[in-house]
Amino acid sequence: KLGFRVDADWTNNTLTVHRNTSDRIIPARAADLYVANSGTTVRFLAAMVSLGEGTYRLDGVPRMRERPIQDLLDALSQLGVSATSDTGSGCPPITIQGKGWPSATTTTVSVRAGISSQFLSGLLMSAGFAGCDTWVRVAGEMVSEPYVTMTVQMMTAWGLSVIPYVDGQFEVQSDKVAHSLAAYAIEPDASAASYFFAAAAITGGVVTVRGMKRDMLQGDVKFVDCLEQMGCEIEYGDGGITVTGRPLRGIDVDMNAISDTVMTLAAVACFADGPTTIRNVAHIRHKETDRIAAVATELRKLGAAVDEFPDGLRITPRPLNGCAVDTYNDHRMAMSLALVGLKVPGVVVRNPGCVAKTYPGFWQDFAALGTETT
Predict the structure, then answer these.
(1) Is the peptide bond before 92 cis (omega within 30 degrees of 0)?
(2) pLDDT tens-digit series, residues 281-297
(3) 27: Cβ–Cβ under 8 A, 6 or more apart, which residues?
(4) pTM of the model
(5) Is 260 a catalytic residue?
(6) Catalytic residue among 9, 32, 167, 260
(7) pLDDT tens-digit profile of 31-75?
């Protein structure tokens, strides 16, 4: 829709993006983009189309219209871009009227990243094509910092120059031009792997996820550190990462850096000896659903004792009972709650198809563990 040619070969899990032959950074001068409930899509594309010359509108499902994006719009406005929330709510639908970033030698922009680090990542990637040196400053706290590190490392791999500084500033230099790589291999999904590592922890079994490494770009690989604290054995090998389940103990953990795995750990915590406290993840209330409230509600249905805090929750194990649980159309709710069914008969996951957002083959892979999935 933005005018780029992209060929998909799903049989070989390969995308081919062809070089832009237009004299404009964004070939299309107008586009109406539907992002469903993908926060990554709306944030990265909003920053990207701000480099274009035209009008671009981004909208999604009803929940997307409740997810804040004003911090990014404010940053784009500093660059002279007209970036507005159509309803004035600070949430999508949004309209970006682009005319490119300032043509000055050096540009400075400040962005808040306390709700999502993707506001910053989107700006950094776009700055690589702005045609001027750009200083990006983080105003206030930043959540999910490992994802920003991943952005910087990937930009460097593509030949772009981005320099992080300890004071929350990033310098993106314009004298470096992205080059075409013949191929770029995408890492296995560390967030998705967490469900299978958790399965080993809950059942006392052994699970190896192939292709996973200790030094992956994705911060969520450190989920296994939480399982190790709870008593599991972790082995890093050439063939992947192996988790061996052992008797579990409750832990107190700051999961700000790996917040997509909060609900996975919450499921594991139901089978530990003693309570588990998860802290510093207030920003996950702005995800596909309010994930703190949602997981607390559903674990209580199953019989766990859950205390909810503004920035986290405490799970105290109690005898569990099978029941139907709701997923709130959130892929991670579905996959996390399914884990409880490994030990508790009668767990029914409503709207299981929502896993298709990131893992359409989840139920087949889950069944391959030897579980009975219907």
Answers:
(1) no
(2) 999 999 999 999 999 99
(3) 2, 3, 4, 20
(4) 0.88
(5) yes
(6) 260
(7) 999 999 999 999 999 999 999 999 999 999 999 999 999 999 999
